[in-house]
Amino acid sequence: MIVVFKKDADVKEIESLKESLVKKGFHLHESHGENHYLIGLVGDTSVIDPGVLRAQRIVEKVVFVQEPYKKANRRFNPDDLVVDVGGHKLGGGFFSVIAGPCSVESKEQVVSIAKSVRDSKAGMLRGGAFKPRTSPYSFQGMGEEGLEILLEAKRITGLPIVTEIMSVNQLEQYHSLVDVVQIGARNMQNFDLLKEAGKINKPVLIKRGISATLEELLMAAEYVLAGGNSQVILCERGIRSFQKDTRNLLDLSAVPILKSKTHLPVIVDPSHATGVWSLVEPMSKAAVAAGADGLIIEVHNDPDNALCDGDQSIKPDRFADLMVVLEKYIALENKTLN
Ligand code: PEP
Ligand code: MN
Is the CATH number 3.20.20.70 carried by domain 83-337? Predict the structure, then answer.
């Protein structure tokens, strides 16, 4: 981190700031230019709040040399993280597909979809019991009953379950029941929830917020990692755009960018990213080619009558065909579907 001082900055104030930084354990490298006086801080700058430094009247600007995320940073974790969910792995050459309905609607629905996607080589079952809906009048999910249905489907099929948890209370109550805790796009910067997710012993799938930068996504992961939970999976699920043909804009370049910046597995959600079922196949293939470690795909047995996201859900037989094609793409990337 480099701190640039204002031209007319009071020398005594500069000295006192420097002293406080040395006390914090930093080595200071000074540089006197013709127009500027600056110091470079050498040490773990993650302990400093740059806003506090910036707020000092003597400070012109604070420039980062390194990224503000440390635990999520590939610089300090060169090897890919492999997240193992009940024997299904994501990252480090392992590719897994998470499939299932947007929302849990009934036991028959979830069990029949679960059996079908398992037979098509999905590695995990998804399904929302607690649903973050834009309208308070839309279906809000089955809640605890929905979780029980997911657990029943897990007992029958052996598939680990991935489900969204929306609040700190729900996390405390239910995290032990699920295999992967999903933190949704709308909650990506719910810092209390992220902090609590840092304390649990379950992988956490963080979906990118609809207007979040990649750095903000990585900082959300940093919250969980800083709490002591190292098992974090990132998900690109489309961002806001002016374009109306799709629900969101799939930011595919986020995948290789994230993979270069972090050791965490990165997956893609082509269903929410496009909002259009016919785009799920091409965008899934593209995600594999872009270097994703997995996919999360909405599959519904009766999309026309789905209580949530029917437009973007594919039917189980289409999912089966898609998986046959994807397996070839995954092999081409030297990855193993599991
Ligand atoms: C979901 O996965 O069903 C969901 C609501 O996703 P997102 O948070 O990405 O909108
Ligand atoms: Mn959905």
Answer: yes
% of the chain surpassing 70 pLDDT: 100
Q: pLDDT tens across 115-135, in order? A: 999 999 999 999 999 999 999
Is 184 a pocket residue for ligand 1 (Cβ < 6 Å)? yes
The number of the ligand nearest the C-alpha atom of 126 reads 1
Report the nearest atom of ligand 1 relative to the CA of 238: 9
Domain range 2-63, CATH class: alpha beta
What distance in angstroms lies between residue 187's CA and the mean position of ligand 2's atoms?
14
Q: Is the CB of 165 under 6 A from ligand 1?
A: no
* 8 Å CB contact between 236 and 295: no
128: which DSSP letter? Answer: B
Residues with CB under 5 A from ligand 2 (ion): 102, 309
> Is the pLDDT reported for residue 157 higher than 90?
yes
Nearest CA to ligand 1 atom 3: 102
Q: Any bridge partners for residue 94, and if so which?
A: 91, 336
**Residue 33 reports pLDDT greater than 90:** no
128 lines ligand 1 (CB under 6 A): yes
The arithmetic mean of pLDDT across residues 260-274, rounded, is 98
Would you state the pLDDT for residue 35? Answer: 80
Closest ligand to Cα 308:
2
Q: Sign of the C-alpha dihedral, residues 310, 312, 318, 324? A: negative
Please state whether beta strands 37-42 and 2-5 pair in parallel, antiparallel, or not at all (unpaired): antiparallel
CA 255 to ligand 1 centroid distance, Å: 18
Please provide the DSSP assignment of 167-235 as one string.
SHHHHHHHGGG-SEEEE-GGGTT-HHHHHHHTTSSS-EEEEPPTT--HHHHHHHHHHHHHTT---EEEE
- Domains in the chain: boundaries: 2-63, 83-337
Indicate whether 32 pLDDT > 90: no
